[in-house]
Automatic annotation (TrEMBL):
Protein's name according to its UniProt entry: Phage head-tail adapter protein
Origin species: Peiella sedimenti
Lineage, top ranks: Bacteria, Pseudomonadati, Pseudomonadota, Alphaproteobacteria, Caulobacterales
Stretches the record annotates as Disordered: 35-57
Length: 98
């Protein structure tokens, strides 16, 4: 079970930006695989990230840029491919960054 969110950005009174996640609903999700990687940009400390491939029932709310919360972590929908691997299902590529 996972929850689907949409990011909403707004400007603060002091001119900064804030982002809140608006809950859109729940969905059933099966994680097929997860790959972890680490990137070291120049002199900065390494930054870890994870990518997952998941399958769920087709849902028009699942679009790129939305967020899925599962297992206590927020994952960004990087790519959503409808009717894969079969009709009525969709394949999602999710990314989690610190």
């Amino acid at each position: 079970m996972a929850e689907l969110f949409e990011a909403v950005e707004a400007e603060t009174p002091l001119g900064g930006r804030t982002r809140a996640l608006n809950r859109l609903g729940r969905l059933w999700l099966t994680v097929l695989s997860t790959r972890r990687s680490e990137d070291k940009p120049g002199e900065a400390p390494p930054v870890g990230s994870a990518e997952s491939l998941a399958e769920c029932r087709s849902d028009p709310r699942l679009t790129e840029g939305r967020w899925v919360r599962m297992g206590g972590a927020d994952w960004r929908v990087v790519h959503a491919e409808p009717d894969r691997p079969r009709l009525g299902r969709m394949t999602l590529r999710l990314r989690r960054e610190p």
